[in-house]
Amino acid sequence: MKGCTIIVLLLFLLLPAQSWAEATTPSSSSVQERMEQFNPEQMGDNLEHKGEELLDMAQSGGKLYIAIALIVFMILLTVGLFFKKVMAIAFLTLFLSVVGYCIIQYWHPLSDFVMSVLQWVFTLKGESS
Predict the structure, then answer these.
(1) I need a labelling partner for 120 at 20 to 30 A (CA). Which of 12, 30, 45, 89 fits?
(2) So what's the pLDDT on residue 22?
(3) Pairwise CA distance, residues 57 & 55, whole Å
(4) What is the DSSP string of 44-105?
(5) In angstroms, what CA-CA distances link 112 with 45, 77, 108, 123?
């Protein structure tokens, strides 16, 4: 009886999934058309635009980020009054929160600085050869 129940359950679960998969599978001609219409430069521009939107959204939530980080710090600090190891975790959390906030808010200047230093190091290495 258990085996029959399992078979019936599998049929009810697998048949709709199979029919859905067949309905959503594109034909080979539409795939070929999409391959011909693919433009890598447009795809790169779209990705860059979406990345900028995501960064702007992350930067706009900076005050909320710091507020939540301070609340978590205060909770851990309060618990740390009773357990000394938790106090160390509280200060570590505060430090990581501040570093994360700085990275989110100042990503462009930081990335430009790192890239300019790397470029300077590699041009300096190339000139000394």
Answers:
(1) 45
(2) 58
(3) 5
(4) HHHHHHHHHHHHHHHHHTHHHHHHHHHHHHHHHHHHHTT-HHHHHHHHHHHHHHHHHHHHHH
(5) 20, 36, 6, 16
Q: Residues, the chain, total?
A: 129
Task: Identify the pLDDT of residue 73.
Answer: 93
| Both tokens assigned to 82 | 């009773």
The pTM of the whole model exceeds 0.70: no
Give the pLDDT confidence of 19-42 residue by residue, as tens digits.
655 556 656 677 777 777 878 888
Query: What's the half-sphere exposure (Cβ side, CA atoms, 13 Å) at 125?
Result: 6
Residue with tokens 């200047």: 109
**23 against 87, higher pLDDT:** 87
